[in-house]
Specification:
Helix 1 crosses helix 5. This protein has a seven-stranded parallel beta sheet. By secondary structure, the protein is of the alpha/beta class. Bound molecules: zinc ion (2 copies).
Length: 333
């Protein structure tokens, strides 16, 4: 087995199971460290062991791969990931409208996110790094976002499109945390609340309704903010009048995000059913913060299918041209 492929696959699977980002980073660094080395250079184990970026585990993986076996570390991960769930909806998804790079709090460069999206067979991916107020996530200032737009513009081709975008913070009063002119320029705007999630029901409802009534917003991200498992602990859903919020989404053509991350599973089942009854559109998104997390879409697709969301109502099943017509739709200011 090719050692570089083995290291990269391990990083990808670690990301998918959302283990510590330091672990996955170590395997990505080792893959970088041996990129371009000949087999003879790799087999010079004494020199290899001294190479920067190679530690005990990664060294063992390289040795085992060179000996022709599937490295034990990789075999374990493959076995854990092997619990695949069948969903007939998953193959209908053409792309993803919510992802992060190391420009904000993602793990890797935009390049690696694009490569992973292509490898999954996506036709498109929206890069939606965080907005300025989210300092803990290194949110992008207007200037940094403008610079990023130039980078994003050069990354499409061969049947794949990288859409420009943002995950813009919904501020306490429902305003959006980025310049309106800049939001206008983006292909996709996901709006999410990340702070003050414990607001009272009335103000929280007004906040979310104001956000989805903005002429800039395409997707309402992880609507309740709940966390149901994982290393960050759990967090109850925000309280708001879901009927009012989803009616506003339906009226403005805003898609309710089905956030695929296993620790979010947002919206909860009852709210997803309500949004379906009220005529909302949906976007099944990964909210990937690393290349290996783009495949988390499997989980979102499984939930949507189980709850009877028809493919037609899910914008991420639409051909790109139709998706673009939707994000560029005429709206009242
Ligand atoms: Zn978010
Ligand atoms: Zn996000």
């Amino acid at each position: 087995m090719d050692p570089h492929d083995a290291l990269t696959e391990i990083a990808t699977l670690l990301e998918r199971e959302r283990s510590s980002r330091y672990k996955s980073k170590a395997f990505r660094a080792a893959a970088d460290a041996i990129a371009g080395l000949s087999e003879a250079e790799l087999r010079d184990f004494a020199a290899l062991r001294r190479r920067k970026g190679i530690g005990d585990s990664t060294f063992a993986v390289i040795q085992q791969a060179l000996s022709g076996e599937v490295p034990a570390y990789l075999a374990d991960l493959r076995e854990r990931a092997g619990v695949q769930r069948a969903s007939t909806l998953r193959p209908k998804l053409r792309g993803d409208l919510h992802s992060h790079s190391d420009w904000s709090d993602g793990l890797t460069s935009i390049d690696l996110m694009v490569a992973a999206a292509r490898a999954l067979g996506h036709e498109y991916l929206a890069l939606t790094d965080h907005s300025p107020r989210l300092r803990v996530a290194n949110g992008l200032s207007p200037d940094r976002l403008r610079t990023q737009l130039e980078v994003v513009a050069g990354m499409s081709g061969d049947g794949f499109t990288l859409l420009s975008g943002i995950e813009v913070d919904i501020l306490e009063d429902g305003a959006l945390d980025q310049e309106p002119e800049l939001l206008d320029e983006l292909d996709v705007v996901v709006a999410s609340a990340h702070s003050k999630l414990r607001m009272e029901r009335g103000p929280m409802t007004r906040r979310l309704v104001a956000a989805v009534s903005s002429p800039h917003v395409d997707v309402l991200g992880h609507v309740t903010g709940r966390l149901v498992e994982g290393s960050r602990g759990t967090r109850p859903p925000s309280t708001f009048d879901a009927k009012a919020v989803f009616e506003a989404c339906a009226a403005h053509g805003v898609a309710v995000e089905i956030n695929s991350r296993p620790e979010r599973q947002d919206p909860p089942d009852d709210l997803m059913t309500l949004a379906l009854e009220l005529g909302c559109l949906f976007a099944i998104d990964s909210d990937a913060h690393a290349p290996g997390q783009l495949s988390l879409l499997d989980y979102g697709a499984e939930r949507a299918e189980r709850l009877g969301v028809p493919a037609e109502r899910i914008v991420t099943t639409w051909p790109l041209e139709r998706l673009r017509a939707w994000t560029g739709r005429e709206r009242d200011a």
